[in-house]
Amino acid sequence: MTRSQRNTAHVDPELAAVNLVDLEELYYGGTGAPRAVAEFNRIRNGTSRRKLSSLLRSHICRPIVSNAEIELRDAFDDLLAYYAILEIASSLGYVGELPEDARRQAVRVLGDDDVQEYYQSHYPLLLPRLMFERASGQRTFVLDADAVDLPAFMRFLDLNATIEHSDEADVFLAMLDDYRFGDGEELHGMDDLLIILGRPREFARRLSRPEKQRHVLDTALQGFRVFLRFCRGMDDLLRGLQPSPLQQSLLWHHHAYWFEIVRDDVGAQLHAALRQFERWQGASTNGTDNDHAAEATADDPRSLGSMHVALRRLMSGRYGWVLRETSNSAGLPVA
Amino acid sequence: MPAYSQTHYTPRPLKAGKDSRARWAVRPSGVAVVFVHGFGGSATATWDEFADRLPERPECIGHDLLFYGYDSLTVQAPVSAALLRKFLHALATDPVHSVMSGSLSINRSLSAAFRYHRIVILAHSLGAVIVREALVQAASDKAMRPWIPLVRLALFAPAHCGARVTELAEEAMGAFKLSLLRLATSGFKAYAQVLKDLEEGSLMLRGLEQRTTALLNAGLTSLRAEVVVQGEHDRIVNQTVFCSDPGPEVELGMGHTAVCKPSAAYQAPIDYVLPILTAP
User: Fold this and answer.
1) Interface of A with B in 5-64 (CB under 8 A)
2) Which residues contact B72 (CB under 8 A, 6 or more apart)?
């Protein structure tokens, strides 16, 4: 990959180049993304008989059951996540313009009809679309340096790692995405998880089970806990970014898919389960069984009540609004 | 033309411990700051905005920030300490080859002979026990003993004099904190080994204090904490002074977990460690 770049970054060119290498290593090289690119190339140059439209179909039309397909779709998700991070980093001036071969690859993959169908219709994501517009020269937007909170971006990357490197969170997020996991002869999914969430004693028993004795639902519950912690961290971070609404919005959109799934698919049940858990917890802590006990914990940043409030804010979509509006309008900010 | 100042490279994984992370300084100063979390904590989250706020202080922009993670729930404290000791040894004796090269994507123009002139360790709760045990283990090893004087300790809500293990186990449940009495003993089973080590007067804590005292008497003064910070409302750890540590700095209104979490509005944790980070 060539390293000649136009410096649209807010840092010196040498540092911008190192930042790009770091992001490539973390979000491309260390993931399934290269496998997605290789498969994409094989399909498009005719050396694979697989159809991209079939591989990247909506799971609502035809379920995804083969392991090979699951792994390849995961690889494409990794690739899209890489492009999303690049779009954020480019918008913040953390990296310069993409090197020519990387730019061409982005245009080829993100501009492909079947790939676009995947990230625009089946599983809508804004950041890959913006990256495509950037790579194809339709968009060169970079936030003003004084509107960028660099430490917040660094913390965002650390926060990402807590969920991206967690096997437990993987299981929970897959269940959110309608996957079901075998455990003995039974298949378990999100519906089973929600039932357990409504039973605090069973929930607590499963949560404290040693790792070696865990069933798949226990692992998913651990993942749910990781996800809630992550949500709490994201909400803290995003609230602190109120002076920079576009950066706030960019970072939210990186995980918008999950927040929107939670809201649209399991929101009502999840809220009901969490409220029940909070009431039980309040009674357990204070010896009283009323809603006020649960509400009282909402000010404690580590409390379930506080995490519940954070989750509501993330699900509401308010953090994502600014970027969505500016990217849809004719007056899209361009540098 | 640079328009904002980037003092550290992109946060990277650190190939040591569990989920450890590093923020390598663009222009290294020769000081490493190692953060060690407590029971149920995690490498970076325990310290909240420490990594963001420290580089805002001009004296700290060149410090490498290393967030060490370990399995605090199910692995016995001496075992976690042995793993940390190994990491600290690599950091002190061969940082470029053994630590940086596996984590940094570039060579920061440091020669292989580069050594840190100071390693400041910040530890919270159980982390203080793990760190002290690691240093005592290292001090008992001829090959490791020479780097002990490089170390400076800053401890937040340390559990080195023991802790109320029920409350500590509840903390580990985080948001799903429950009365463990209602859970019978199930909550304890997973964590039994670590909690046993942390009971007041446990075999491990008594041994740690005796060995630390002996090493302090032998002249290894860096085993004495430079600063100990306690939360006024901490009901989890026993706040008795350990060996010849200084008396605690008490943070009014703070509890066990908040005391090590700086923010824009709460700079005290940084103010406490700044003199150690900037001393010549």
Assistant:
1) 10-12, 15, 18-19, 21-23, 25-26
2) B37, B38, B39, B40, B41, B80, B126, B127, B194
